[in-house]
Amino acid sequence: MNVTLAVKQYVTRMIEDSGPGMKVLLMDKDTTSIVSMVYTQSEILQKEVYLLERIDSQNRDNMKHLKAICYLRPTKENVESLIQELRRPKYSVYFIYFSNVISKSEIKALAEADEQEVVAEIQEFYGDFIAVNPHLFSLNLQGVARGRSWDPTMLARSTQGLTSVLLALKKCPVIRYQLSSDMAKRLAESVKLIITKEYELFDFRKTEVPPLLLILDRSDDAITPLLNQWTYQAMVHELLGLNNNRIDLSRVPGISKDLREVVLSADNDDFYANNLYLNFGEIGTNIKNLMEDFQKKKPKGQQRLESISDMKAFVDSYPQFKKMSGAVSKHVTVVGELSRLVAERQLMEVSEVEQELACQNDHSSAQQKVRRLLRLPGVCELDAVRLVMLYALRYERHSNSALPAMMEELAKRGVSEKYRKMVHSVVEYGGKRVRGSDLVTATDAVAITKQFLKGLKGVENVYTQHQPLLQDTLDQLVKGKLRDAQFPYLGASSLRDRPQDVLVFVVGGATYEEALCVYNLNRSVPGVRIVLGGTTVHIHTTVLTTVHTTVHSTVHSTKRY
Amino acid sequence: MASSYPPPFEGTGEVKEGFICPLCHKDLQSFYQLQDHYEEEHSGDDRHVRGQLKSLVQKAKKAKDKLLKRDGDDRADTGSYESFYYGGVDPYMWEPQELGATRNHQDYFKKHRAARIDHYVIEVNKLLIRLEKLTSFDRTNSDVAKIRAIEKSVVPWVSDSDVPFCPDCGNKFNIRNRRHHCRLCGSIMCRKCMDFVPLPLAYKLTSGTRESLCIPGSPGQSQAPPSGAGASGMGSRRGSLSSLSSVTSMLEEKDDEKIRCCHHCMDTLLKRQQKLEERDHMPDIVKLYERLRMCMDKVDEKAPEYIKVAESLNAGETTYNLDSAGGLRLEVQKYYELIDALSKRILTLGMKDDPAPTPKSLHLQKMIRYTATLFVQEKLLGLMSLPTKDKYEALKEKRKQEQEKKLQQERLAAQESMRKRQESEKNRSVATTNGEVPPAPKPPRMTKAGGWLPSADSKKTHSELKDPLLQQIDNIQSFLRQAREAQRTDEVAMLEENLRQLQDEYDQQQTSLAIALSQKLAQEENLQQGEIQRLEARERSEWEQRAPAADSRQPSSIWECSLDLGEPVAGYVEEDKIGEVTPKFERSPLSLRAFPALAGQEESPPRLRSLGGHVTPPSSEGPNSSSLNPFEEDSTPTEEDPSNPFFEDIQEEHKEVSNGKKEYNPFDDEEDNGGQEEPAATSLGNPFEEESSETSNPFTEASGDSPGVSTNPFEGDEDAGALADIDMIEEELLLQQIDNIRAYIFDAKINGRLDEVELLSANLRELQHTLQEQKKTH
Description:
The complex is a heterodimer. Chain A is built from 20 helices and 18 strands. Chain A is an alpha/beta fold. Chain A has a six-stranded mixed sheet with strand order 6-7-17-15-11-10, with helices on both faces. In chain A, strands 2-1-3-4-5 form a five-stranded parallel sheet. In chain A, strands 12-13-14 form a three-stranded antiparallel sheet. In chain A, helix 6 (152-168) packs across helix 7 (182-197), helix 12 runs antiparallel to helix 13 and helix 13 runs antiparallel to helix 14 (381-394). By secondary structure, chain B is mainly alpha-helical. In chain B, a hairpin with a 2-residue loop joins strand 1 and strand 2. In chain B, helix 4 (106-135) crosses helix 6. The longest helix of chain B is centred in the middle third of the chain and has 44 residues, at 389-432. The chains are: A alpha/beta, B mainly alpha. The interface between A and B is large, with 78 and 68 residues. Strand 5 of chain A pairs antiparallel with strand 3 (102-104) of chain B, so a sheet runs across the interface.
């Protein structure tokens, strides 16, 4: 059930299949991201892969002493490029792997292009998704919806991605979907269709309890992606932006040359791996420990090198020391930049109000606090809009709504028209009307008591009070209590026992908060393994894009018809 | 003991061996103690055999489980995550999974390709045959009409009226845009879409079919293209195709030196030509790369072996010989030098060639170099240093003392228990009035032990061993010895594993036996014998075996007797070692080969030197330098920078060392003869003497052993600027080197060696200079 490992094993197998010798890895844009998430450069170098090339790059030289490993999505363009490549092979031998199902006719076309008999291997390796963490994957798709229904190409891509996850993990699941969402249903059907069509591929060893695929829709919980997150992973993504495991730090004031771009990968960076899911405060402490540890090992000038054994220890540990100093300076820089941004954007205060909006039920205090923050100059445009959005979602039908006043404040602040319109779009996207389950106010007795108890106990951390809706859904799911009425099974088969292996897919994108929640569930519930996926993994800007494309094209489509 | 026998259940906790009570897991030094302990402590417990068996079975099951889950556990241990938490599992810790689903299209692909290839081959051959016909007559001296006739006879021309438009570009044919026929397939195209096969190319292509003499690859390549502008660059570059056709179109119908053809035929011919060219061509980079990989494989093979040996030596064990370890280290380091040199050559490959290598191949070369650097850095790091001779002696002594202490304790305890046993036995024998039982097991044990000693290694014992397990253990031990002698480390490891398992099993068997038969004294002697033999069988616990034998002597003579025992043991080890070492050195007498003349001079007084050296540990520079050095001499002589004073210094040292090294062989021989008479300690001490002083001089030690040094990466930089364009990697290494040298300077200062300080600081300045220069060039 480890998606990172699944992709890594695929790539490793590819490389190993090609035998010894110098190699080049030919990829397309998507597979480049896929591979770079699981392999670092030095790792892949050790496997004799010295060049990484794009199949569509024009300036590749003839290098007949190299073996080519092609890892490509089976798109028309890729197949066409590959045909051209085979007609005039630049490398001695080709090992071709497609990341998904490829049609017989395309294979035939390739076979006919291979006049020089350079193809040694042609296979399907189903790593057609981006493995972010062992339990989190993404398809990196933006704007999958046209109105409330799928963009057809996006549906096809999502189906491919999701089926490839199933194949990579060797799971032939029972499917459940969120009834309130048409898109979830369409995707479920589409996946089912593929499973039926490619029944030979999905013929895996039967387990006692069949795996479960649960397809949800983002619009059911529009609040979660609007909240600020405080885990290391989420903050790095949200505030710095992680692209193929790399952070661009060039805009950090006074950054040194070798820290302009740093790699953050849980695979090779222990500190990152251990602090992925810790919150900002804990990371601060850990950074301090790391520094102290480092300082202990670091010889302070020459005073420390008093004895010969000191010397020897220093020389012996020098490379380790160097590696460690690299890690320390990297994380110190990253965390330093994060805290600079947090202070600059007054994120602590913003987050506190956000959490209050999301978790508590005190309208007057909430609206006062929001309006106070709206008047603060430090709060940036995006954060201000997010606050208003949260307020609008939370107190959508409150009799005494302060929304118009807030909108005015936004206008006064000079927030752009586009953003102000987004407030209404968000309500349209994820308001009460579309929600299948009740997001904010608890309805059943159990939930009410829970909330009450929570209020009594007080909150441990005001910045992390919020629990995503997914938490509840999955809680019920693993207890076998998720209602069939809300999340029906597709087809006749249903699960009688509690599920063991669960794959959750969120149409419209998952969030890092949900990833954390799934991570904790995995660690706390014995015998259950949950993998979370989404068309993308959201940060604030992407969720606004999603909202925009969904709602905006709704207007269009209604106009058209 | 632990390091040479890695415990079978790695990571699952300490594995106890020896006499462990099956009920309370208390370690009781000897069989008797165990028995006593058992009788005293657990006599009240359930003695029922079935109960005992049950617990044993459970234990076996547990062990099995452990073994099966080993992989998973190992993962959990290596990861730094908390693997279990509230009962759930961290996703990072999910058990390993098999490779995801795959689907192979190979067969389908091949089927279609085969059909296509047949077609293609026929096409190519057809073209070649036609080309041959077209070039087989004397074109220059025939008139146009005749040529035309021949050409038409080779392939039927498509009639003009059938083709109103150029099939390639679609332009209409008219008087200005005339039709042209491809001489190879007969089709029609316009002038723009037309190509020419230059005659040299045609000859080259058809040479294969013509069976003519001289064409394998190179002459064809060097053949100068014909003077005609159109054919220039026809050789292999595809890019020139378009320009070619545009230029040739200017030359009107001059078909003397070329054969008119269409794009498609030209394409096919060019591909064919390219294939011919590439067939036998192996670029330099491939050759170098293959050698590089070979060295890396060797390192992968040898380094773990060395690490194992070094670990054992550093723990003061006598399993391995310090000399052979030094040799191994030398060998591994030689490979590092080679890797470095080879990768550097790859990096600079083609730099000076006229058409500079393409950026991609430069990138490739850079990446290979980078990988090699990473490899060396990473692997050298794990290459721990060997203990010096003195240190090794100290370690051994320490270990010996520890064992001694343990032994004494055991002995005391054994005597104690013995006394108790005798009492209890007497009591019991009285009680049971069993006259047959020998009341005192002392005499038989004595004889047993005495009888055993000399034949410890002989095969006679085999027949005596009733237990198949024991026989097996014995067999494996002899295999193990042979394997060690043959230096097959992997087999040794495997055998050791086997041996341990067998011994475990035997232990268990014995324990269960002991429990089941604890009341039957008649059986006791068998058991004793078994235990003693088992102990005897373990090479390294040789001391323990003597415990029962020695305990009959007076306590006051304990020290004396242990010395007595020490002699044969050491002698035995020594024999083993020498067998191991000498072939090794004969096989790789690198230092000898490097300086035959010098070595010859030194050969005469080896004994003197060795003796003197033994008495007063040398502190002079010469023999001090580490074992690594001789290598730099012979593996990379050209790499060295003579202008570097530091290097010269080292070189001098090397010379001396390699002379010193020479002493090993004669000395070993000496020992072989004299070893029996001499006290064991000295005989063991001597061979290591050279190495021992190695680290007493920290300066040279550092220069030899520190990983960062692998000095060579930087020499390249120093000696040239030839590699002026070298990338960041080199710069980083340079920085590292500077840091290292600073460290050495500091060290030298502390030791008050001012001359070295001077040398080093000169060196440092030079490095810094290089670094600055390099920075400038960036």
